[in-house]
Amino acid sequence: MERIIRKTAAEDIPRLMEIFADAKETMRADGNMEQWNGPYPDPEAILRDIARGVSYVIADDGRINGTFAFIPGIEPTYNIIYGGAWLDDTLPYATVHRIAAAHGCHGIFDSCMRWCGERISNIRIDTHRDNLIMQKLISRSGFSYCGIILLADGAERLAYQRISGQDH
């Protein structure tokens, strides 16, 4: 199997909507009833990511089985962290958002993190308190829990950071 990561194209959006539906179904089955409610992530959010050049797909033998946003630079919702602190708040970093995998596809998170880690050593990510699957993946991938951040709408998220080459 050949796995590639490439920038998302507008014609990929219908497949991404299927993948987000799969992810939502998995979250609900695992007890995460609050995250990604309603239409979000929606085609408009993906189109904004495409326009900014931060949306990517993971394809296995040409079939898209995963997606994520890789956003270098300051994430405004990360400026204030509660109940903890970032491992380092001075180094440039990138944030991973909207990561999702199609049902039955394995290793999407690991492929994403390996790809991101090849581009920057300092990565931040957040997830909902009820997203136990993502919390396990994040921890297994070498991230450290740093505290709680608030999204623009005031919703809280558990925040993590991984700095390659540093032992935390």
Structure description:
Helices cover 27% and strands 30% of the residues. The radius of gyration is 15 Å and the shape is globular. The model has no long low-confidence stretch (mean pLDDT 96). It contains four helices and seven strands. Strand 6 and strand 7 form a beta hairpin.
Overall radius of gyration: 15 Å
How much of the sequence lies in strands comes to 25-35%
Q: What is the residue-averaged pLDDT?
A: 96
Quick one: how many beta strands? Answer: 7
Assembly type of the chains comes to single chain
Strand order of the largest sheet: 1-2-3-4-5-7-6
How many structural units, i.e. domains?
1
Morphology: globular
CATH topology: Aminopeptidase
Largest β sheet strand count, sense and barrel closure: 7 strands, mixed
Short summary of the structure?
By secondary structure, the chain is of the alpha+beta class. The protein has 4 helices and 7 strands.
Which short descriptors sum up this protein?
single chain; alpha+beta; 7-stranded mixed β-sheet; 4 helices; 7 strands; globular
How is the topology of this model organized?
Layout: E1 3-7, H1 13-29, H2 43-52, E2 55-60, E3 63-72, E4 94-101, H3 108-117, E5 122-127, H4 132-140, E6 144-150, E7 156-163
Parallel strand pairs: 4-5
Antiparallel strand pairs: 1-2, 2-3, 3-4, 5-7, 6-7
